[in-house]
Amino acid sequence: ITWVTGVQTCALPICRVEGRPKLAEEIVESARDAIRRTGAVADVRLRHPLSDEELAKVVEVARDFELAKATSTPAAELPPPAMLVLALFGWTAATTSSPNSPVLTCTLCTREVLITSYITPPATPPTITSPAPTFDVVSQHQSFCPFVDAHPPPSSSPTSTSSPATAIPRKRTGWQLRLDTLATRSEEHTSELQSP
Question: What percent of the chain has pLDDT over 70?
Fold first, then answer.
């Protein structure tokens, strides 16, 4: 999908979401890859703008994807919700030379973050320490990143509450466009999930 915004056409990959099943696959596989590469990422403390209902929807869509895929291959364990959130917001694990230095990266804004300070330490005897800081999945992106820089929605999305002739598209961030895609429920998407 390519759409025009004023005089500019959005050609970024984030603007071309190919439907719910493809996005669900991308998020689940990205979360799995992050666990494979770093392991420790699963223990990262996150801050995100998702409501409990939105987070539940992300997990539900990932679970639906896994169940549909399990008909042709053995079912794999679903990645933890924190890993799915990282993937939804565009964060992937970067390959580093040291397994003790896990790095998250965004391929669209090229931001790289060493996440050791955001990892909850293993249980230790009680001491007076401050808790690990939280990794903010939005503010860690560069300000120009499509995941956090607002874009008008694709032309097939609802635009506003005004009449169609005078409708002005609401701007949506990349993560909101992805969340909207996951939240879309139609017979077409359901049948796509169940197809081989």
Answer: 62
